[in-house]
């Protein structure tokens, strides 16, 4: 009997989707489940997006598209970059993919050979480790605990880059923590990156329009233009525009690297469908009232979540200022019991919370921080209120 490729043994199912599937099973069994587990924005795009889709259907050619992306879509993305203060990108510097995850996979495939090192801060999005392990890369984790507000320091970065990893991967705003780096913090990291020319930089910035408290979105190339020659900036429709199922991702970067991604697209996906591309153009280039309104709504929900968590004795949660996640340190519960079940770690906590209170959250260990858990707070307000109350009840019942 022939064997599967060795890399398939390194591939793991998404920890987030495992929790989400369990929550769906409980809901199908009749339980009133509040699902804080999956990072979906839970809103739909504006009417102009659907109007563009209907028009595209009327004129659909049924043909293959460009491996790079249609000119209209590339120009819309370049305009989006300009609105974020990222000037100077041309069509030769950008391409598309089937969602940001496929873009990231292609990037890692293009930049990393087996045994090359990739460094990124902890907590991290789960797929960072998963993709690196599939490609048999060496993973260098840079721990950023709640005591330092889940943020990477320039000193940590300098020490890590001194070991010359092939790739440094940086997520801002952060999934899972909701942390956002200030202008000054990004400038300081950019100065460090400029000292280490042997490392590629990937900026996973897909939450760049979901920034609260007037902090603003900032990128290292703004402060150190020389970094443009080795920096890739990822983006997506999924979170900002309420379009995760449309699967449209983008990346901007140096021409040589982008051409490699276009070639990989030619082997992996060929092109985006015309209808999907039309929806993406409308989202990026059309009215921004829906994402702007949702940013304000998520900011208000952040305040509610943070207030509820900090009202629980012993729970610590650095203030998230972007995306739609909270990442509280719940280690005060470790060593205690709930309804006779001992809680020794974050997995025990999340399992007991789901099975007794029917609230689905993701253990922090899935993101490299086992003292915490992730709450995605995009559900309807009634569900949010109910879920937060149940979490407070759960803690109150610990013995």
Report on this model:
Helix 4 packs parallel to helix 11, helix 5 (99-111) packs across helix 10 (255-268) and helix 7 (154-161) runs parallel beside helix 8. The protein has 14 helices and 14 strands. The mean pLDDT is 95. The chain has 2 domains: 7-44 and 290-396, Aspartate Aminotransferase, domain 1 (Alpha-Beta Complex); 48-285, Type I PLP-dependent aspartate aminotransferase-like (Major domain) (Aspartate Aminotransferase, domain 2, 3-Layer(aba) Sandwich), CATH 3.40.640. The protein has helices at residues 7-10, 15-28, 47-58, 71-83, 99-111, 126-134, 154-161, 183-194, 220-223, 255-268, 274-285, 289-310, 346-357, 381-396; strands spanning 34-35, 94-97, 117-122, 138-143, 167-171, 200-204, 231-236, 249-252, 325-326, 336-338, 341-343, 359-360, 362-363, 373-376. Helix content is 41%, strand content 14%. The protein is an alpha/beta fold and 399 residues long.
């Amino acid at each position: 009997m022939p064997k599967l490729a060795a890399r398939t043994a390194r591939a793991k199912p998404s920890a987030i989707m495992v929790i989400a599937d369990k929550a769906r099973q409980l809901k199908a069994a009749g339980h009133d489940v509040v699902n804080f587990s999956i990072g979906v924005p839970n809103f739909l795009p504006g009417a102009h997006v659907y109007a563009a889709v209907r028009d595209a259907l009327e004129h659909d050619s049924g043909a293959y598209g460009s491996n790079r992306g249609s000119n209209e879509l590339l120009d819309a993305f370049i305009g989006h970059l300009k609105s974020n203060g990222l000037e100077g990108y041309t069509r030769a510097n950008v391409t598309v993919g089937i969602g940001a995850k496929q873009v990231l996979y292609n990037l890692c495939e293009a930049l990393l050979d087996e045994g090359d090192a990739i460094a990124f801060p902890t907590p991290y999005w789960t797929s960072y480790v998963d993709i690196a392990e599939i490609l048999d890369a060496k993973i260098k984790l840079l721990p950023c605990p709640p005591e330092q507000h889940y943020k990477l320091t320039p000193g940590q970065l300098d020490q890590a880059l001194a070991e010359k990893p092939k790739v440094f991967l940086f997520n801002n705003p952060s999934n899972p923590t909701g942390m956002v780096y200030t202008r000054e913090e990004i400038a300081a990291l950019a100065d460090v990156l400029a000292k280490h020319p042997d490392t590629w930089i990937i900026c996973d910035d897909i939450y760049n329009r979901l920034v609260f408290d007037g902090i603003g979105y900032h990128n290292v190339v703004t402060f150190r233009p020389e970094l443009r020659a080795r920096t890739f900036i990822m983006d997506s429709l999924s979170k900002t525009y309420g379009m995760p199922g449309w699967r449209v991702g983008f990346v901007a970067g140096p021409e040589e690297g982008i051409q490699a991604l276009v070639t990989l697209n030619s082997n992996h996906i060929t092109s985006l469908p015309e209808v999907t591309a039309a929806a993406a153009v409308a989202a990026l280039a059309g009215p921004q009232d829906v994402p702007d309104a949702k940013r304000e709504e998520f900011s208000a929900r952040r305040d509610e979540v943070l207030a509820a968590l900090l009202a629980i004795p012993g729970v610590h949660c650095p203030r998230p200022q972007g995306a739609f996640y909270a990442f509280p340190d719940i280690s005060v519960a470790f060593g205690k019991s709930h309804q006779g079940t001992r809680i020794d770690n974050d997995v025990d906590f999340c399992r007991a919370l789901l099975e007794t209170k029917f609230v689905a959250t993701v253990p922090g260990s899935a993101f490299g921080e086992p003292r915490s858990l992730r709450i995605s707070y995009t559900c309807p307000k009634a569900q949010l209120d109910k879920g937060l109350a149940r979490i407070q009840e759960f803690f109150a019942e610990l013995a």
